[in-house]
C-alpha cells in the first residue's frame, strides 16, 4: 500500500469515502476541490492506495498561524474504508500528515472530532493525541 498526495483523478474514490464519513459529495465537486488544494502549499490531501490500485482511505490536513497560536497543523478529516479498518492504514495516514506538518514548521497537530465518534477518539489517543477541551460548534447560514 502506498500513501501519496491526492490528485483530481482521485475524485471518485475520495467522494465515495466522503459518503462513509457522513459528508456526501459529488465527484465533480471533489475534483474541483482537489485541484484547488493541489495549488495551496498550506493544505494537502493524502490517499492510501492498494498495491493493485484502489483508494481505501484519505486524510486532509492544513497548516495555519493564528494571532493566538504559532504555526500549527490541523487534521480536518480522516477516513479509512470500512472494509479495510484495523490494518494500520489510519496510523500510516496520520504519520504522513504529521511528517508534512513537521516539514511546514508546525510544532503541534490539532484535530476536532465529533463527540459521537468514540472509536475514533480511542484511535487518536492510541497515537498520542490528548483531549484538551470540549467545545460547542456554532453555524449561521449566510
Ligand atoms: C478512525 C479510523 C480512521 C482508524 O483507521 P484504521 O485504519 O482502522 O486504524 P489503524 O488500523 O491504523 O489503527 C491504528 C492503531 O489504533 C488502534 N485503534 C484503531 N481503532 C481503535 C479503536 N476503535 N479503539 C482502540 N484502538 C483503536 C489500533 O489497534 C492500532 O493500534 P496498534 O497499531 O497499536 O495495534 C477508521 O476507523 C475510520 O475511518 N473510522 C470512521 C471515520 C472516522 O471516525 N474518522 C475520524 C473522524 S474524526
Descriptive notes:
This protein has 142 residues and is of the alpha+beta class. The protein contains four helices and five strands. It has helices spanning 11-21, 27-38, 89-103, 118-126; strands at residues 2-5, 43-49, 55-66, 69-80, 109-111. The chain has a five-stranded mixed β-sheet with strand order 1-2-3-4-5, sandwiched between helices. Helix 1 packs across helix 2. Residues 21, 78-80, 85-91, 113, 117, 119-120, 122-123, 126 line the site of coenzyme A. Coenzyme A (COA) is lined by residues 21, 78-80, 85-91, 113, 117, 119-120, 122-123, 126.
Layout of secondary structure:
Blueprint: E1 2-5, H1 11-21, H2 27-38, E2 43-49, E3 55-66, E4 69-80, H3 89-103, E5 109-111, H4 118-126
Parallel strand pairs: 4-5
Antiparallel strand pairs: 1-2, 2-3, 3-4
Coenzyme A (COA) binds next to strand 4, helix 3 and helix 4.
Structural class: alpha+beta
Gross geometry? globular
Bound small molecules, by name, code or SMILES, are: coenzyme A
Cα Rg: 15 Å
Report the span from N to C terminus.
42 Å
Series of secondary-structure elements, N-terminal to C-terminal: EHHEEEHEH
Biggest β-sheet description: 5 strands, mixed
Low-pLDDT segments, ≥5 res: none
Helicity, in percent?
Answer: 25-40%
Give the number of helices.
4
- What is the number of beta strands? 5
Beta-strand content bin: 25-35%
**Could you tell me the mean pLDDT?**
97
Order of neighbouring strands in the sheet with most strands:
1-2-3-4-5
